[in-house]
């Protein structure tokens, strides 16, 4: 994206979008539903265009349901693909190093620059590309399943996922309607599969069932918290990199939650008007807490029982389970 916008211009576009949303000055655009999946406004056209998107065999993809550990994993992958050259990594913000394939600015904001849709920018990038997407498997470019690029897929305990996703949606959408939504309202939407990007369980299970395919690596957020160094090495080997122990150690240190949160080139908070979440509290930071078990401070007893029953129903017989 550097070819079209600077980081400062991208920040301006991002902030303008949020400002217009907060003031209800954006044209009203209903959230589209594609194959039963609720998507951000305008994404339906992008998904249609992605049917012709050229996937490359040497692509490296990070695919997740939102708030499952995307930013964390993409930073590890970016560092690995740069062979551990952290000085080079820190020259460019993560949104430029790992573009968000389906993200789209509203038309009034796009007119601020000559930047085309991000998926068109990705099409121009030199190989090997590192690409991020939240799209469920059935909406990804069809060539993903024939070209078979490397795909890292990350899952997170659904209880923590729902809590993190709730705060994330409030942060990125400052509209009065979104700010008025309670956690209970969002929790009910999540159980019904009506949040953005669809039902979390369908998103997870499509990749879980493909976990034995050689071009797909399925990880758990909780394992990353438990053994970050081991996960860094696992990702490195999966991406075909033979990095030294010293380099793996350096990447691990670079990618700790604390270091990423204070690194303006790794933390998406840089895009917001509250730089790094300063003065706003953890609840409004993109990298909020990164904890395992934070759901315990949010769920009521009834919500916990409902989620337990929900998880048992959706994952029964799949072999997929989570630490609670």
Structural write-up:
It is globular and about 50 Å long. Helices cover 44% and strands 7% of the residues. A hairpin with a 2-residue loop joins strand 1 (33-34) and strand 2. By secondary structure, it is an alpha/beta fold. The strands form two sheets. A four-stranded parallel beta sheet has the order 4-3-5-6, with helices on both faces. Strands 1-2 form a two-stranded antiparallel sheet. The chain starts with 6 loop residues before the first helix and ends in a 9-residue tail after the last helix. The chain has a single domain (7-315), classed as 3-Layer(aba) Sandwich (Rossmann fold), CATH 3.40.50. The protein contains 17 helices and six strands.
